[in-house]
Amino acid sequence: MNATTVAVDLAKNVFELVCADEHWRILERALLTRAQFERWFDNRAVTLVIMEACGSAHHWGRTLRARGIEVRLLPAQYVRAYVKRNKTDAADAQALLEAARATDLKPVAVKSIEQQALQGLHRLRPGWMATRTRRINTLRGFCREFGLEVRVGAVQGLAAIARLIADDRSPIPAILRTPMRLALEEIRLMEARIEQLERELAQLARQSPACEALSSVPGIGLLTSTAMVAAVRDPGSFDSGRRYASFFGLTPREYSSGQHRYLGRISKRGDRYIRMLLTHGARSVLRAATGARAASSIACALGRFRCKTAPTTTRPPVRSPTSSRASPGPSG
Q1: In whole angstroms, what is the distance from residue 277 CA to residue 248 CA?
Q2: CA–CA dist 243, 233 (Å, integer)
Q3: Mean pLDDT of residues grouped by 10 in the chain (332 residues)?
Q4: Going by C-beta distance under 8 Å and a sequence separation of 6 or more, which residues neighbour residue 53?
Q5: H or E, element range at 227
Q6: Which domains, ranges and CATH numbers included, belong to the chain?
Q7: 83 Cβ partners below 8 Å, 6+ apart?
Q8: Number of alpha carbons in the 13 Å side-chain half-sphere of residue 17
Q9: Strands 14-20 and 48-52, how do they pair?
Q10: 92 contacts 54 by C-beta, under 8 angstroms
Q11: At what angle do helices 154-166 and 174-206 cross, to 10 degrees?
Q12: Which residues contact 76 (CB under 8 A, 6 or more apart)?
C-alpha cells in the first residue's frame, strides 16, 4: 500500500482512519482502538496526518511530529461543511481529506506542552471564580429570606455575612448556621486557590519575554498577557495584524454584495475568553483616561479660580525726577 496521507477522526477510545495516496485517492479505511492507533504508524511510510483541532489533537500532533510525520490540524467548524449526507466517524474522516485540499483553509498550530499547561491554569481560574460567585449569591439569598440586608461587594458582603452567622441574636435559624459557615469556608478556600494560581501565573510571566512585552501595553495585565501567549505561540504566523485580531473576534462582521458593503459590529467568532479580557482592559484604559481628563479639567479650573481670587498688591506711584523738585512759593 502506498498511502502517504492519513485522515484521523479522533475520539476517546476509537479512532477512524482514512488513508489516501499522493493523488488523494482513498486506499484503505481502518477502525482502531487507542493502543492499536499508537502502534499503527510503526511500519508505515506516512508523510501527512490530518486531524480536527479538537480534544487531544495537540497531544497526538506532538506525538506524531516526534516520529517525523507532518501534522495538519484543521478547524472543526470549517471541516463540517465537507461532510456528505449523514454524520458518521467515517464521513468525518473523509471530510478531513477533502478539507485538507482547500488552499484557503489555514491549519491550526500545534500547541506545546507549556502552552496547554498555561491554558489549563486559565481554565481553572474562571471555574473557581464562578464557584465563589455562586456561593456568595447563595449566602446573600439566605440572608435576604430572613429579612437581613447585606452590603454590596464581595469583601464587605462576606464580612457582614460572617458577623451575622456568628451572632446568636441574628434571625438566621440555628439549623442553617453550620451549612452557611461551611459555605464561607469554601469561599475562603476558593480565594486562596485563586491567589496561589495568580502567583504561579506571575512567576511564569516574569520568565517570558513575550508576556513582559505585552504587559507594557496599556490595558494588558497579567491575565491577558499570559492568556494571549498560551493561545498563540507565534503571532508572526498571521499574515497581518487584522488576521490576528480576527482570531479573537475583534474585526467587524461583514455583509456585502456587489457595490454595497456593510461592516457591522465585531464578529465575536474567536476566542471568547481573551476577547473578554481585552474588552475589560480597554474599558479600564478609557476609564482611566476619562478620570485623568476630569482631574486635569478640575486642576485647570482651580488654577483659573486662584488667579481670579488672588489679592492684588497696590504699589506706590513712581515719581519722576522732575516731580521731586520743590514747587515755587508764592511771589511776594
Answers
A1: 11
A2: 15
A3: 85 91 90 90 89 93 93 92 89 93 89 93 95 95 92 91 92 93 95 95 92 92 93 84 87 87 87 92 90 76 59 55 49 42
A4: 73, 74, 75, 76, 108
A5: helix 222-231
A6: 5-100 (3.30.420.140), 113-210 (no CATH), 234-266 (no CATH)
A7: 91, 92, 95
A8: 23
A9: unpaired
A10: no
A11: 150
A12: 52, 53, 54
Length of the chain: 332
C-alpha cell at 3: 498511502
pTM of the model: 0.78
| 19-53 residues labelled b (16+ CB within 10 A) or e (exposed) | bbeeeeeeeeeeebeeeebeebeeeeebebbbbbb
Three-class SS of residue 41? coil
**CB-CB contact of 116 with 58 (8 Å):** yes
With vertex at residue 194, the alpha carbon angle to CA 279 and CA 153, rounded to the nearest 5 degrees, is: 65
